[in-house]
């Protein structure tokens, strides 16, 4: 049974929000919870139309952020992976007083490659759109394989992602298509200098979807932000290297707590 917005909450302390990526759901964070809930009250959210959350009439990036802001704690650290990183960044732009710290994981303000900007080639996104219309289950599986490609633990990573996806209801094809449209069209680069809260950008060195070159570009665009690169991880560093990921995340979050 779905709810307007589903989230799973564990732990005590300051609020920490975890937002999954395209085609996934909140279960992807499960292996991090033991290390985080000792320090924070952690909210793992299903984005609108994913998992147990009902889709909204408007599946735009802005509406996704608005839906989360409406239901989630008034003040929190926001962590977003991939598409979830775009949602978290949009929330930080819309309501900076609500986001005391921003963490983007394997994410980019502009996912599609263009004019020298590194990212996903438009033809790859177009192929996913075409495949989605034909067989959305197979399309999500292909995307999971793409996310883990290059990681030394790729087979294990894909298995974990599959288990997470299957543990919640599958998103509808129109929700997945709306997500692909966001990945193809969204461009938050012109507004990044508006972000004033502490911001940590985390990347996998072996990521084929968000190349490490993006991290270098953003060092210039947002010099006040921090970055962390995981040497042996691809698109899901919190799955490939959970211990190191948790350690870096907790160290940053400690800087964001209200005094």
From TrEMBL:
Question: One Pfam family this chain carries?
Answer: Abhydrolase_1
InterPro entries membership:
AB_hydrolase_1, AB_hydrolase_fold, AB_hydrolase_sf, BioH
The entry marks the following residues as binding substrate, namely: 22, 82-83, 143-147, 235
**Catalytic activity, EC:** 3.1.1.85
Drop me one GO molecular function for this one.
pimelyl-[acyl-carrier protein] methyl ester esterase activity
Xref: PANTHER family: AB HYDROLASE SUPERFAMILY PROTEIN YCLE, MONOACYLGLYCEROL LIPASE
**Protein name, per record:** Pimeloyl-[acyl-carrier protein] methyl ester esterase
Q: Which residues form the signal peptide?
A: none
Active site per UniProt = 82 (nucleophile), 207, 235
